[in-house]
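Example 3.
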Amino acid sequence: MCCADLATASTDAQPIRGPGFARDLSPFVIRLGDDLNRVELAVEGIRCAACMGIIERGLPALPGVTKARLNYSDRRLAVEWNGDLTVERIVDALDRLGYKAHPFDPKRADDEETKESKRLIRALAVAGFASMNIMLMAVSVWAGNGSDITPETRDFFHWMQAVIALPAAAYAGRPFYESAIRGLRAGRVNMDFPITLGVVLTMIMSVVETMNSATHAYFDGAVMLLFFLLIGRVLDQTMRRKTRTLAENLSALRSETAAKIFEDGIVRDAPLSAIAPGDRVLVRPGERIAVDGVVEEGSSELDQSLVTGETMLAAVTAGERVYAGALNATGALTVRVTAAASGTLLDEVESLMNRALEAKSAALVLADKATRLYVPFVHAAAALTLLGWLVAGAGFHFAILAAVAVLIITCPCALGLAIPAVQVVAAGALFRQGVLLNTGDALERLAEVDTVVFDKTGTLTLPEPSLVGIYDSAVLERAARLALSSRHPMAGALAAAVGERQPYAQARETAGLGVSAVVDGCEIRLGSPRFCGAEVQARAALERHPEASVICFREGGAAPSVFLVRQALRDDAVETVEAMRRGGYRLTVLSGDRAAAVAGATDALGIAEWAAELTPKDKIARIEALKKGGRRVLMVGDGINDAPALAAADVSLSPVTAAHVSQAAADGLFMGRRLAPVIAALGIGRKARRLMVQNLAFSALYNVAAIPLAAAGFLTPLIAALAMSGSSVVVTLNALRARNGMRAVAARPRRTAGTARTGRALQTKTA
Amino acid sequence: MDVLVFMIPIALFLGTSGLVAFLWALRSGQYDDMDGAEYRMLMDD
């Protein structure tokens, strides 16, 4: 069976869904033991808790399934079974229950990050337990010293504290010790170094004091320090992991499979990880090309808008290169997969992107800036205290005590806690607005933005084309019904515009031309102007609307109709852009598409600054120029051609429909059909940065006040630890205060979106 | 004083058992699905 036949034959029965090839999902299965298998799936369509029951009760009906458990927090399903059940059958069963599922790469499911986060939580539990018990006894000693504690009781309490504190600090402090050592090996003194030094010194000193039956021991200070710092680390880790989990679900659901042609000519869907360079894959009309390669057989037209931003279909024939992300419109293609040989578009994109990312990583974020100033300052202050007291003739014991008090009181708890706490609260607010952050520090960079650069195709416009203009409804309905039998993206737009669900029986698709059917003895055709004999009408329509594409429809001998299809702007694009302009942002559109198409969109949005037909290099150059001019640039884009620009900009956002490389390059992803999340991200970023600065200012103020007291020897390490904890609490509360503020900021664009929807409804009515 | 020698280790033992219970719960995955747990108790099976 040749490829074109395959494409035609399959349209008869299943108009919208892809043809049901056997899929090879076996690489996703984890073997747990003899005859026990396990697979993890990302599940889409879970809206409420009842779905848990439906899935968990529905799946065991399959033979051999022993366990099906859905994690409602991260929308993942674990299934275990005995016997020879296949993943395909599980996916099909879920499909029948009404959920779309895609298996996860087992390597990805149990990653380093999950282990690290569990380790941090264990450390936090140990530190919390230890600090509470130690504090209990420390406060007793403290109160007892003021009244009538006997030296024996005090020693006993000190030894008990040592018994708890030494193992607890050894265990809970490991994340800090290891990081400090890693830093030292790399020749850097990082934030964890003063922490490690402070904890170790305090421990040694306290043990010595206890052995000498001294009045004070300072185990409490050291362990509480670890406890507060760990809270910050855990918050930080939790935020990043949650975002990554959801982003991974999305990418798993965007079926990462390709129809592989095996040696014996059989075609099967295989996961991308099982496809190697040199393999041949079949790309049917209406499918996205999942790999880079060279066309071996067949010819077609490709919608490369995700690759280059160009919305016009491009013709490809045997011997030409095709790139992952392009949508195959008309004919079936056999593609030989290539290794990323040098000189390809994707290669160029990747090298440009890496260069841009390196440049960005040189920029210091707020916490780094603070660390860089802070660490030498802390060490200098402690060393000066020690030297000062020794020179002044105080005893070695007293000098060390004062120096350690300085180390403890300056320990960067507020720094370590305040910024992650604000990040977690802000990321939660952003998530409710449909924005997922890839990096925590993106918030600070969002706050500084004063220029927004948009890509057009798929960013300002919706990723799929839609029908524009006014047509006779009866004709439109029949055309849309016929369109259901075609997988061409323009036919899809036609079908979606009417919402027609019943295709004509016996519709036949002719690859590269269109689709036809016989209805009541009269032949009807939908497709290219040539196929419908509508060249004249099509040319006239295109002259009036140069930015649109046409699809024609003819019934028997009647005059043909011409439908205009265009990539429509996102529902709320006009309002969101207007709101940004009012907010004082400079707006620019940089597109890879034709000038006429870009002009159409920018006119509608009222954006004066735009450039069209740009290569990825041009986009970078323009963004660099803006940055040189002192501008802080937010890049919003989705195409493969946007990936380097996304990396080059100060901060970047992508819609979740974006190409993989772009998703990876962007600092954040936004979901849904609206553009409003972009403005919400900007607002929340500003608010978050203000809170971070407030928190840093508070910690600085606290240090300025406390260090002289500690250096003067007025503060024992215990009081220093209490003061330090107090400052951490204040800073955390300040971050939590942001919750209400964030909601207010986030609510504003939502109101704009509401007017957007009514605005669009009016437009449709007048049309 | 004498009573402290017994009471504090006992208190610590009780506290430690709480800590161990938490670590066990963490390891056995009881904190993996914080959102689902609240609905699971309502499902009758």
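The interface with chain A takes residues 1, 4-5, 8, 11-12, 15-16, 18-19, 22-23, 26, 31-36, 39-40, 42-43, 45 of chain B (CB under 8 Å). Helices of chain B lie at 2-27, 34-40.
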